Amino acid sequence: MPQPAKHAELDHPTLDVLAQRWSPYVFNPRPVEEEKLKSCLEAARWAASSYNEQPWTFLVARREEPEEFAEMLGFLVEANQAWAKNAGVLLLTVVCRTFQRNNKPNRVAEHDVGLAAGNFTVQATALGLAVHQMAGVELAKAKAAYQIPDTHDPYTGIALGYAGDPALAEEQKLGERDQSPRPRKPLSEIVFQGRWGATAKWLS
Amino acid sequence: MPQPAKHAELDHPTLDVLAQRWSPYVFNPRPVEEEKLKSCLEAARWAASSYNEQPWTFLVARREEPEEFAEMLGFLVEANQAWAKNAGVLLLTVVCRTFQRNNKPNRVAEHDVGLAAGNFTVQATALGLAVHQMAGVELAKAKAAYQIPDTHDPYTGIALGYAGDPALAEEQKLGERDQSPRPRKPLSEIVFQGRWGATAKWLS
Questions:
Q1: How far apart are CA A156 and CA A131, in angstroms?
Q2: Which end of chain A has fewer CB within 10 Å, C or N?
Q3: Do A42 and B197 make contact, defined as CB atoms within 8 angstroms?
Q4: A198 inside 8 A of chain B by CB
Q5: Which residues of B touch A57 (CB under 8 A)?
């Protein structure tokens, strides 16, 4: 199967697994092997977190369980449903915004869910899978349907699967998005030294 | 130099670079090579983000600039200063919680800074470096000193450097922490299927 090439245009060398990661809109509706899914979740499990709180939980719906998959798909906003329906696995991340040991607010809980989702994504990429994360989730509906307790909140969606051929996209605009460039701000705009706005001397 | 072994005890296979990552308290006060620092920041740059907003900025202070290093160290809480002073590089992440194109709140801005910090950490680990992230930062002081604009907020600290020998720790308790086990919740507690609390069938 032809794989769309969306490698990062690097200014400095990085691991291939980081440069090759991107978020496809076109998925091949193919199940994800159980062992691969477990490895992605295991990678998430070992992320760092403040006070080792591990404020992340994952609700998982696989293509192999069509009713569960359809239910979770229904909690995504419509624009996401249009392409996420072809993912092999859908996941909903759940965040706990208070420390379990003392009930105090965890200022970095969402950040730490990001660390776990990042590990998940690196592992997936290494296994030939693709990940497309989503903020567009009907949070209140999902919270009620999955009986998520008051201490926790649904937070983001994750589509995991095999990237598809953009030429075979059901909607042409999705295929086009998967062939467009991947813009990023240059390091000189996001790395400062000494004070805000001052380009780091060693960067130039 | 003897490297402390703090590999994850994996239940499912992952990339070595994910299993080998941990957050040391004992650093060897050795500078970080400029090219390695650039690669870590480049990795952060290519993280995913909602609407490709890239809501992250990094303020960087290297050992090679002792005054800048001391200034940033002073914005960490005292417990972090005790060990972070031996890092090769200190960084402060800065988050933009509104979308630049329409000024609306970005619900996942902190999560996406986590994705960038995660990429940074993976790249660092691959280069033989260690990363210890910190929530304990004097945010208001740092915001004023670095002249961070109202649109942005300092968020977390990052210590980057070479892990040191725990036996040579200045404070014994820090060396002990670096030799203690790395506990994690089992996947059965953080991965659910169908509804909250229901262990995924394919996990057992």
A1: 13
A2: C
A3: no
A4: no
A5: 190-192
Distance CA(B149)–CA(B144), nearest Å, equals 9
Can you list the domains of chain A with their CATH numbers? 16-203 (3.40.109.10)
Q: How far is CA A171 from the centre of its chain?
A: 22
| Mean pLDDT across A140-148 | 98
Range 67-86 of A in CB contact (< 8 A) with B: 68
Sign of the dihedral through C-alpha B35, B37, B38, B42: positive
Whether B18 sits inside 8 A of A46 (CB atoms) is yes
Instruction: Please tell me if residue A39 touches chain B, with a CB cutoff of 8 Å.
Output: yes
- CB atoms B117 and A133 under 8 Å: no
Terminal-residue alpha carbon distance, chain B: 41
User: pLDDT tens digit string along B11-26?
Assistant: 999 999 999 999 999 9
Q: What pLDDT digit, counting tens, does each position of A64-87 carry?
A: 999 999 999 999 999 999 999 999
Residue position matching structure tokens 């820090």: B174
C-beta of residue B182 within 8 angstroms of C-beta of residue B176: no
